[in-house]
Design brief:
The complex is a heterodimer of chains A (579) and B (288).
Chain A: H1 3-25, H2 37-41, E1 75-82, E2 92-94, E3 97-101, E4 106-111, E5 117-122, E6 138-140, E7 143-147, E8 152-157, E9 163-168, E10 183-185, E11 188-192, E12 205-210, E13 216-221, E14 243-244, E15 252-254, E16 259-263, E17 267-268, H3 272-275, E18 295-299, E19 306-311, E20 327-333, E21 336-344, E22 350-354, E23 360-364, E24 372-375, E25 382-384, E26 395-398, E27 412-414, E28 419-425, E29 428-433, E30 442-443, E31 448-453, E32 463-469, E33 474-481, E34 490-491, E35 496-500, E36 506-510, E37 516-519, E38 532-536, E39 539-546, E40 570-576
Antiparallel strand pairs in A: 1-40, 2-3, 3-4, 4-5, 6-7, 7-8, 8-9, 10-11, 11-12, 12-13, 14-17, 15-16, 16-18, 18-19, 20-21, 21-22, 22-23, 24-25, 26-29, 27-28, 28-32, 29-31, 32-33, 34-35, 35-36, 36-37, 38-39, 39-40
Chain B: H1 3-6, H2 8-25, E1 58-64, H3 70-83, E2 87-93, E3 100-101, H4 104-112, E4 115-120, E5 130-132, E6 137-145, E7 162-165, H5 169-180, E8 189-192, H6 195-203, E9 209-213, H7 214-223, E10 231-233, E11 241-250, H8 254-269, H9 272-280
Parallel strand pairs in B: 1-2, 1-4, 7-8, 7-9
Antiparallel strand pairs in B: 4-11, 5-11, 6-9, 6-10, 6-11
Chain lengths: 579, 288
């Protein structure tokens, strides 16, 4: 038996002992019910069953026990120290049980009311794979579905933590990895891949897997191939010279159309001259948009067929991902009810397309930016400011810089207010193209250096929470503070919007006015994660993981007064009202 | 023969340095900085566990078996250690990963070594957490082909593609040149993720010329007969692109860096490094 096999066997023995010992003291895990398709479509109010809670990606909970009137009494209910490291965790909650994934891929089930450990499972990463967290996980039937840093999908028994199956999706030796976990649609596990840089050309992919076995049933490449208009959109460079297009954020799902909507990241390297995308080819049959980078893909989750796509930012040269969440919202546009897919890229522009056709509908600008000069109201085509495009031998000035005015921290939508709540930051960058091949193996990422600077005439407030009314596209309110806002937003049925910041604070705002109604004491580290709320034993809890995740913390150079612990502690904090 | 006598000009100053190194090692070593660990500062799991090292009589160095020059670099590091009257302690990094982020070196160094051999001296190419020694050799990026009709890059007809290891100094120079010439005089430049992939694209016929790091070509030609017929051609109309290669240290190792710089200077001057390069037939020069 291999060492890994022995470790797994030992782990299994340990886990079985652990499970039997805890069953006696806590039967909450015995009461969990299998998660059905119907539950995923219409989740119980007290559950948080997927990344943004519902298939439409709203990130909204109808729970209202904690509300505007009593949120001031919110207290710490319990906390749980997680493995130090880096992660961007979204806890998952079902029937009062909390599931978390530590940065070292230790998966744990906790009693949501008490914080007591019920079971844990240690997934063993290869030694040379960096142990970092995964943003989310999925639950289906009796299985907890987990993505790992070495590009495996595993299924655990949600009651016991026992391994049910383990499927390698891609070879991590070539850089393939998962930084987000899967979603499950009609028994198909849908997973996106990241890390498709120089180690393995050809781009990333989404895969679909049988939830019962992990077997791959389809694969969609995120870089277009073949002699098609899409395949010929890479300026004539061959497939082995096409890089990037990572699929590192989970999608959303429209049951009515049976379509998954997911974003794709930018091309690598970021500089288009290096990527071979400029100067444009003189071949009339060749273009240089680099499809499907920075696009919304509408994917049939049963077959993997791409029904249509919409590219939000062609020929990206500034690492300005359009990979983030697609919120599925039905609202009138010009007096006509439309089915929207709403996303916000790093530029901070909120954009809506019709999710039945891919037709462009509208946009709203938020944070200051100088990348897009104008947007065609009919097609959504963006006129890019030529002065911000990085050029070898020059330093250019662009707003925002690479972390984005809005980054992986997800926006959220409340049906109470019909508003989108955005965590944003304001900053710019002096950008220089650098040769960054210091070693044969050790390379320097996207090969552009961003020196981050404040927005011209800044009031000094880097972080904001913005509320945009999606019925008339007006700004309802805006909260500003100096430290960056670093967590996703969480609107609730109680009329609150929860959010966290770099300076270790968890806050609650009035969803209609933006008044700050509650603020936690300073927690153990910055809050770079996805807050959730859930119910256990009839009581509402609000949970957030305090952690440094290297996302908007990259703005630390702009707020050096914010000091964080050097050992990257990670702690799950759970708040509730006093009994 | 005692090492100090092998390098008589080093003996005096380096003996003093060697005696001083243990004292320097008593200072806080590559332990976690007291500042927040933001993106540009690397992170290593459990990094707070690493403190002062106790083996002051050793020079702990890393070489990476994936580097084409790792054996040459190890021989140079051994010479540096001996020049400093320290016992060389080699750690060979073993991994199957094709590429890694530069910040990974931080973890390797916390765990295994004081200096990591094999990094190009690129101005602005490193974060504030790292510093480099002076170069112990200089090597070139080279244009390579198997086409007998091509003796210089200028012989390559416009429109025929060059496969270039992407993001290198030579790639940037090539791209800048191509942007400056009329469209009908350009060669398509196909970015390849690694030197090996660029060479493979040449063998596979995707490109007519590859632009790669000369040590990578050297290593492939030593290992695989399929690469034997590849030839380096004159880069004209471009000038040669040459870079120095040194060792990486954590930036707080200022005393050790000074000592190593002086050792490299002495070993270059007395011909030791040139001798090592010649022994391996390595395509680099030791420049004073």
């Amino acid at each position: 038996m291999s060492i890994k096999g022995k470790l797994l066997a030992a782990s299994a023995i340990t886990l079985s002992l652990c499970a039997s010992s805890v069953f006696g003291q806590d039967a909450a895990i015995d009461k969990i019910t299998p998660v059905t398709d119907e539950m995923l479509t219409n989740p119980p109010d007290g559950d948080w069953l997927m990344w943004r809670r519902t298939y439409n990606g709203w990130g909204y909970s109808p729970l209202d026990q904690i509300n505007k009137d009593n949120v001031g009494d919110l207290r710490l209910a319990w906390a749980w120290a997680m493995t130090p490291g880096r992660t961007q965790e979204t806890p998952l909650a079902h029937d009062g049980i909390i599931y978390i994934q530590n940065s070292d891929q230790l998966i744990q089930a906790l009693d949501g009311a008490t914080g007591d450990l019920i079971w844990e499972y240690q997934y063993e990463l290869p030694d040379d794979v960096d142990p970092r967290g995964i943003r989310n996980k999925a639950i289906y039937g009796d299985k907890l579905i987990i993505g790992t840093r070495d590009a495996h999908l595993i299924a655990l028994d949600a009651k016991t933590g026992q391994l049910i199956w383990d499927k390698q999706v891609a070879n991590s030796d070539f850089g393939y990895s998962f930084s987000s976990g899967p979603m499950v649609v009609n028994g198909v596990v849908v997973q996106g891949t990241t890390g498709c840089g120089g180690g393995q050309p050809g781009g990333c992919f989404f895969t679909g897997h049988d939830v019962n076995t992990g077997a791959e049933v389809w694969r969609v490449h995120t870089i277009a191939r073949g002699d098609t208009p899409e395949g010929n959109s890479w300026n004539g460079v061959p497939l082995e010279s096409r890089h990037g297009a990572s699929a590192w954020i989970p999608g959303t799902y429209d049951a009515e159309q049976n379509l998954v909507f997911a974003g794709v990241g930018q091309p690598y390297p970021w500089n288009t001259e290096m990527a071979g995308l400029t100067p444009p080819s003189s071949d009339p049959n060749v273009t240089n948009e680099a499809l499907y980078t920075n696009s919304t893909l509408a994917i049939d989750p049963g077959t993997g067929e791409v029904k249509w796509y919409f590219q939000h930012l062609p020929t990206d040269s500034l690492d300005l991902d359009y990979v983030y969440e697609r919120l599925l919202i039905d609202l009138p546009v010009d007096g006509q009810e439309r089915k929207l897919s709403v996303t916000t890229g790093k530029i901070g522009i909120v954009e809506a397309i019709d999710r039945t056709t891919g037709e462009w509908l509208w946009h709203v600008e938020t944070a200051p930016q100088n990348v897009v000069l104008s947007i065609d109201p009919e097609t959504g085509a963006k006129e890019i400011n030529p002065e911000v495009i990085p050029v070898i031998g020059e330093t250019t000035f662009n707003c925002p810089a690479d972390p984005g005015a809005k980054a992986w921290q997800a926006t959220a939508y409340s049906p109470r207010t019909q508003a989108l709540y955005l965590p944003t930051v304001e900053f710019c960058s002096d950008t220089t193209v650098n040769p960054l091949d210091p070693g044969e193996i050790y390379t320097g990422g996207g090969r552009q250096t961003y020196s981050r600077v404040p927005v011209p005439d800044s009031d000094g407030n880097i972080g904001q929470v913005r509320a945009i009314n999606l019925t008339d596209l007006s700004e309802m309110w805006q909260y500003r503070q100096r430290p960056p806002i670093t967590s996703s937003t969480l609107p609730t049925g109680g009329g609150l919007v929860f959010v966290g910041s770099l300076d270790r604070k968890f806050m609650a705002f009035d969803d209609e006015t933006g008044e700050k109604l509650w603020e936690s004491g300073k927690l153990s580290s910055s809050l770079e994660s996805f807050p959730i709320t859930y119910e256990a034993g009839g009581k509402q809890y609000v949970a957030i993981v305090a952690n440094f995740a290297s996302g908007l913390g990259r703005l630390a150079s702009l707020t050096p007064e914010v000091k964080l612990p050097s050992n990257d502690p990670i702690t799950l904090y759970v708040f509730a009202l006093p009994d | 023969m005692p090492v100090a006598f092998a390098f008589p000009r080093l003996a005096g100053p380096l003996l003093a340095l060697a005696l001083a190194i243990p004292a320097a090692a008593l200072l806080p070593g590559p332990a976690p900085a007291q500042e927040p660990l933001f993106y540009d500062v690397p992170y290593a799991p459990g990094q707070w566990r690493y403190g002062r090292r106790l083996d002051e009589s050793q020079l702990r160095y890393c070489v990476d078996r994936r580097d084409p020059d790792w054996e040459v670099a190890a021989a140079i590091a051994d010479a540096i250690a001996l020049g400093l009257l320290l016992e060389p302690r080699r750690h060979v990094v073993e991994s199957k990963l094709v590429l890694e982020d530069i910040t990974r070196v931080y973890q390797v160094m916390l765990e295994h070594c004081d200096l990591h051999m094999g990094f190009k001296l690129i101005p602005g190419g490193y974060g504030g957490w790292a510093t480099l020694t002076r170069a112990y050799y200089e090597a070139e990026y080279v244009f390579v082909t198997a086409d007998p009709d091509i003796q210089a890059l200028a012989d390559l007809p416009p429109g025929r593609p060059i496969g270039t290891t992407m993001g290198t100094s030579a790639h940037l120079r090539l791209v800048s040149y191509l942007m400056a010439v009329p469209a009908d005089e350009r060669w398509p430049a196909y970015p390849m993720g690694t030197n090996v992939l660029a060479l493979e694209s040449l063998l596979g016929g995707t490109v007519d010329v590859a632009l790669v790091w000369a040590p990578s070509l050297w290593a492939k030609q030593r290992e695989e007969p399929a690469y034997a017929d590849l030839r380096v051609i004159d880069p004209t109309p471009l000038p040669p692109t040459t870079l120095g290669v040194g060792a990486l240290l954590l930036s707080d190792e200022t005393f050790l860096r000074t000592a190593i710089d002086e050792a490299i200077a002495a070993l270059t001057e007395d011909g030791t490094i040139a001798g090592i390069l010649e022994t391996y037939g390595f395509p680099a020069t030791a420049e004073p």
